[in-house]
């Protein structure tokens, strides 16, 4: 038996790396967290915010699986809002502005305090292998660390190259050097490595902004926190501001378009369509007279402001000119210029649903290296990689969340069944079963997994069981309790010709909130053993009931297809009658079920029929072989 | 074998699969000094030889490369003399090399599996082969050319556009996307619903085109049903006798009425007292009446009290099916205008005929053609849904689109409207056998300037 220094080595201390290390630790593993700078853990390289559509759901899932992100933002957020409240609860989304430094310091303290985690300052340079298994890493300093599992969360640092106009600076982030050796090690092991691009806006000096010309966006009270564990916190919410570009902005940018490395051809890799640079927006949507810019404060102890929507890689002087053409920013000073950054990633067909690479046993990848963007997406993967690395060491099967139970499951499934054409960001529209994947029920969906693997305390699990039971009780009370229509005032118009309505029916009327029905309860929430949270859970259940039942039938169909396993030893090359395109896709993505195969881009129903027949024949043949003579 | 069994000038054998060329190597001996008879779409003359080297037949042969053949696979076709024995010998020779004979429809199935044609078009192939009339041929041909796919895709395309708008407003609440107004959404959805309905409505004709128009002849025993049956067929198919209950089982025959296949069924007369066999015949007659497009109800006007009987009988007839009353045996009365015709019904609902003298028969034939053609589409360019499966999928999709419409009207939240739209689109995708995934996002990004 080889001597290992650690159980798990996590390379990179960003949002993915931190969750990976913490999850490994929670599962009782000795973790080495390799970071270039131990004071920069979970630093927000781009916008100072957590959450948003699809993303907040991931944060709540991370929280329900014992992760840190939700608690960290709750402790350090300076403004909280709930988006989409006019729509249904499946698409409600919490979004918070972070105190950038406060968040980073909170996470650093938390990780430093973890007895199972050792932070090693350095840069990973190469993988150490033993046969087709990982054995550890070698730092650029030539120091060697041995472990049976390695999780790489390299972010934009892997081969990072910053572009500002024609200027190119090798860096992992503004002012920090990147990692330039590890990609070679990936390639030497036979991995395909590609390039992606992302960008960030310039930062502004808040003291030079004329807020009187912008629209204020205050935070919300009561504060919508992320974590179930957060009890509350006293703080003053800081407002954001909304402003717009002008005709002048358009002129400046169009005049200087060719100075942008995106347009001059200096950058060839793909950037995200959902987060385009300002030059891209103005060029592609030329008929749009103006574009929104959100001015987001970077924290309490700083005057720096993040102009969301103004990502750019134009030369600094053009950035200056363009920024000053925005309403309210006429006198603004840029503290740091915006830039585009290209970095190496590892196309995700090379990993399995557990996030372990196919090529090298024990090597896991999480975050931007898998082609995603966003702190939340990275953290969700980091958490899963941490859990699965620990399970691997225990010789247990991996934890794989499916599309019917978590956004994290949707994300990983998307990654391993699609070719990356741009950095992947979560949207609620990516989740076909989103009515059931809500912020409010993350614990219902994931707590039993978390409990099974020891990711949460028994106490938390027990507490939640109580909430679940009282939710059920509250649901049946709401169904049973009825009120005379005459007592309903304004709502009576929805129930013409009725004498009584149940509170459940009342809750299904668009616009009726749980708070509206409190006056009609037969006894107070407290005396009924519930509370506002329970009432809200019950109300959401009632509101969606019919739809959820329909959706559950669809999930059942989906799971049936997922259950049609494709044996690992199958050789897709030898399936006759398959279209060449389909064969190539199957060989590349190696789907492990018929369901997964069906989601691979470009695969037709015909291809699936061929595959299905082949699997059945294959199964029969396997049976024949197994049969004793 | 791709030609029908029996004798013919030419018989054809198709070999499909990656091994097709290798098999040709083994059994085909090209004439002249041709060495490699594998140039695609090039016709070679030569002989099929058996393993001993004896000539089985002289043939022509053509090979088609992968992706350019009917099945989409590598393919070879052999054209030999059309005798049963010759064909069987050639087949036996080929099967000797471990090749399996194709199951019915397998070549078309392979064409679908290879992605050369979609599901709707594969189904059209079967229709085309089975078509017996001009109408059936014409619609099957159009569906094969992809007309149905096109029509269905129009609905799909509009639905996905609408869905993309809804999704964009859900996923980007802060972007100030010009939220599609309720009126605009309703208008778009109305358009989708109208289009889906239009397609579904064509099914009535589609079914007639594909399965034929079904006419049942019914009435009391000895009203002359079998005589009329024979007259319409122009042959003595059914036994005719002046004894009630002569026809115990039903008889069905097909005729071509101006390009439309029409089935005519002669049923057992309906009456009370009868034997077991006759009763069984009457029971099946009920089923036939329920499944027909038109019932010809025959009345013997020489029979006493036929008016009362008719009132009673017609009450028992299926509600939704057209009935044409025929007053038979008018040759037995001197002046038809003096016969108190059926008073309970509009006189135009009936026609006077005589199976004996053939009076009124030409008139009846014209009336049948008129009724069959009523509501038949103009075949020049209109798309017609002929498959029950397609109609059912369209109906399900329509159900979801209608729910979405009601939802929009009631200001239901958009994620629920999207839920209905997605289900509708899924149903439509099942017609052509297509899957969608990233399409919605692609449309969002191409239509809206978003990105915070």
Brief overview:
The complex is a heterodimer of chains A (629) and B (452). Chain A is of the alpha+beta class and 629 residues long. Chain A has 19 helices and 23 strands.
Write the layout of secondary structure elements.
The complex is a heterodimer of chains A (629) and B (452).
Chain A: E1 8-11, H1 15-26, E2 31-35, E3 49-51, H2 55-64, H3 69-76, E4 77-83, E5 93-98, H4 100-112, E6 117-121, E7 124-130, E8 133-139, E9 144-146, E10 149-152, E11 161-164, E12 167-170, H5 182-188, E13 194-200, E14 203-205, E15 215-217, E16 240-244, H6 247-255, H7 261-264, H8 278-284, E17 292-297, E18 304-308, H9 316-323, E19 334-336, E20 339-345, E21 363-365, H10 375-393, H11 407-417, H12 442-452, H13 458-480, E22 482-484, E23 500-502, H14 503-507, H15 514-517, H16 532-563, H17 580-589, H18 594-599, H19 605-626
Parallel strand pairs in A: 1-2, 1-10, 2-6, 10-21
Antiparallel strand pairs in A: 3-5, 4-5, 7-8, 8-9, 11-12, 11-20, 13-20, 14-18, 14-19, 15-16, 16-17, 17-18, 22-23
Helix pairs in contact in A: 1-10, 2-10, 2-12, 3-4, 6-9, 12-13, 13-16
Chain B: E1 8-16, H1 20-27, E2 28-30, E3 43-49, E4 55-64, E5 75-82, H2 84-95, H3 106-113, H4 119-130, H5 134-144, H6 147-171, H7 182-211, E6 213-219, H8 225-233, E7 251-257, E8 260-266, H9 276-290, E9 294-300, H10 306-315, E10 322-328, E11 350-352, H11 361-373, H12 388-409, H13 414-432, H14 439-447
Parallel strand pairs in B: 6-8, 6-9, 9-10, 10-11
Antiparallel strand pairs in B: 1-5, 2-3, 3-4, 4-5, 7-8
């Amino acid at each position: 038996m080889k001597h290992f220094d650690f159980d798990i080595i996590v390379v990179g201390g960003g949002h993915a790396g931190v969750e990976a290390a913490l999850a490994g630790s929670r599962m009782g593993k000795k973790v080495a967290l390799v970071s270039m700078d131990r004071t920069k853990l979970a630093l927000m390289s781009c916008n100072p915010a957590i959450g948003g559509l699809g993303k907040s759901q991931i944060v709540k899932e991370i929280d329900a699986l014992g992760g840190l992100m939700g608690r960290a933002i709750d402790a350090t957020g300076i403004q909280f809002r709930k988006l989409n409240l006019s729509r249904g609860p499946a698409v409600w989304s919490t979004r918070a502005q972070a105190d950038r430094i406060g968040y980073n310091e909170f996470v650093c303290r938390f990780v430093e305090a973890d007895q199972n985690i050792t932070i090693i300052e350095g840069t990973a340079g190469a993988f150490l292998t033993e046969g087709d298994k990982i054995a550890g890493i070698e730092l650029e300093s030539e120091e060697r660390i041995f472990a049976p599992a390695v999780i790489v969360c390299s972010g934009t640092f892997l081969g990072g190259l910053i572009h500002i106009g024609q200027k190119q600076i090798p860096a992992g982030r503004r002012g920090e050097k990147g990692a330039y050796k590890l990609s070679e090690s990936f390639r030497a092991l036979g991995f395909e490595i590609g390039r992606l691009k992302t960008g960030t806006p310039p930062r502004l000096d808040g003291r030079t902004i004329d807020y009187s010309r912008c629209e204020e966006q205050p935070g919300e009270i009561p504060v919508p926190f992320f974590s179930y564990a957060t009890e509350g916190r006293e703080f003053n919410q800081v407002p954001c501001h909304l402003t717009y570009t002008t005709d002048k902005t358009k002129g400046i940018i169009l005049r200087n378009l060719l100075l942008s490395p995106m347009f001059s051809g200096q950058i060839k890799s793909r950037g995200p369509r959902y987060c385009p640079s300002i030059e891209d927006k103005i060029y592609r949507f030329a008929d749009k007279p103006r574009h929104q810019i959100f001015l987001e404060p970077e924290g309490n102890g700083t005057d720096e402001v993040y102009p969301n929507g103004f990502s750019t890689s134009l030369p600094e002087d053009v950035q200056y000119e363009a920024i000053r053409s925005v309403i309210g920013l006429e006198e603004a000073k840029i503290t740091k210029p915006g830039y585009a950054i290209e970095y190496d990633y590892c196309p995700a067909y090379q990993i399995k649903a557990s996030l372990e690479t196919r090529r090298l046993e024990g090597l896991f990848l999480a975050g931007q290296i898998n082609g995603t963007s966003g702190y939340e997406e990275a953290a969700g993967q980091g958490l899963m990689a941490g859990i699965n690395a620990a399970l691997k060491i225990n010789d247990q099967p991996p934890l794989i969340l499916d599309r019917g139970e978590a956004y994290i499951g949707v994300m990983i499934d998307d990654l391993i069944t699609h070719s990356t054409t741009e950095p992947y960001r979560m949207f609620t529209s990516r989740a076909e079963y989103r009515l059931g994947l809500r912020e409010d029920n993350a614990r219902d969906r994931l707590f039993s997994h978390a409990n099974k693997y020891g990711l949460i305390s028994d106490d938390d699990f027990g507490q939640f069981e109580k909430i679940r039971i009282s939710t059920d009780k509250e649901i049946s009370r709401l169904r049973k309790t009825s009120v005379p229509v005459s007592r309903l005032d304004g709502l009576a118009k929805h129930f013409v010709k009725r004498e009584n309505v149940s509170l459940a029916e009342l809750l299904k009327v668009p616009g009726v909130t749980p708070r509206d029905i409190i006056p009609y309860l037969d006894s107070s929430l407290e005396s009924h053993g519930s509370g506002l949270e329970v009432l809200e859970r019950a109300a959401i259940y009632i509101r969606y009931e019919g739809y959820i039942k329909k959706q559950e039938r669809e999930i059942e169909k989906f799971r049936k297809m997922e259950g049609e396993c494709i044996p690992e030893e199958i050789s897709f090359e030898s399936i006759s009658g398959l279209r060449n395109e389909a064969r190539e896709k199957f060989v590349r993505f190696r789907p492990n079920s018929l369901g997964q195969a069906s989601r691979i881009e470009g695969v037709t129903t015909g291809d699936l029929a061929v595959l299905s027949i082949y699997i059945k024949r294959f199964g029969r043949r396997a049976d024949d072989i197994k049969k004793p003579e | 074998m791709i030609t029908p069994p029996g004798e013919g000038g030419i018989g054809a054998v198709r070999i499909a699969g990656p091994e097709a060329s290798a098999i040709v190597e083994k059994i085909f001996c090209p004439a002249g000094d041709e060495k490699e008879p594998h140039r695609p779409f090039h016709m070679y003359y030569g002989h099929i030889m058996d393993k001993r080297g004896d000539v089985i037949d002289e043939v022509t042969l053509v090979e088609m490369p992968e992706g350019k053949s009917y099945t989409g696979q590598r393919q070879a076709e052999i054209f030999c003399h059309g005798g049963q024995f010759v064909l069987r010998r050639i087949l036996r020779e080929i099967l000797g090399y471990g090749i399996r004979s194709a199951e019915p429809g397998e070549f078309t199935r392979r064409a679908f599996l290879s992605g050369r044609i979609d599901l709707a078009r594969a189904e059209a192939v079967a229709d085309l082969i089975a078509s017996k009339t001009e109408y059936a041929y014409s619609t099957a041909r159009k569906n094969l050319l992809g007309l149905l796919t096109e029509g269905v895709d129009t609905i799909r395309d509009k639905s996905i556009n609408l869905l993309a708008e809804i999704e964009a407003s859900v996923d980007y609440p802060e972007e100030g996307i010009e939220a599609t107004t309720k009126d605009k959404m309703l208008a778009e959805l109305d358009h989708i619903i109208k289009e889906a309905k239009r397609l579904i409505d064509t099914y009535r004709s589609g079914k007639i085109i594909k399965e034929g128009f079904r006419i049942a002849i019914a009435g009391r025993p000895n009203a002359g049903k079998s005589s009329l049956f024979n007259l319409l067929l122009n042959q003595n198919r059914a036994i005719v006798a002046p004894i009630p209950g002569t026809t115990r089982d039903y008889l069905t025959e097909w005729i071509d009425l101006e390009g439309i296949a029409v089935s005519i069924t002669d049923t057992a007369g309906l009456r009370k007292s009868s034997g077991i066999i006759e009763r069984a015949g009457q029971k099946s007659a009920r089923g036939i009446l329920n499944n027909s497009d038109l019932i010809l109800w025959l009345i013997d006007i020489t029979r006493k009290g036929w008016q009362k009987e008719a009132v009673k009988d017609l009450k028992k007839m299926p509600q939704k099916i057209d009935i044409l009353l025929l007053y038979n045996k008018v040759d037995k009365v001197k002046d038809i205008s003096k016969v108190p015709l059926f008073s309970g019904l509009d006189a135009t609902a009936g026609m006077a005929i005589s199976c004996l003298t053939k009076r009124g028969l030409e008139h009846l034939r014209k009336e049948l053609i008129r009724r069959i053609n009523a509501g038949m589409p103009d075949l020049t360019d209109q798309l017609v849904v002929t498959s029950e499966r397609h109609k059912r999928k369209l109906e399900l999709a329509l159900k979801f689109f209608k729910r979405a419409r009601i939802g929009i009207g009631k200001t239901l939240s958009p994620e629920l409207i999207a839920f209905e739209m997605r289900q509708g689109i899924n149903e439509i995708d099942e017609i052509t056998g297509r899957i969608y995934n990233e399409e919605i996002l692609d449309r969002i990004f191409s239509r809206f300037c978003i990105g915070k």
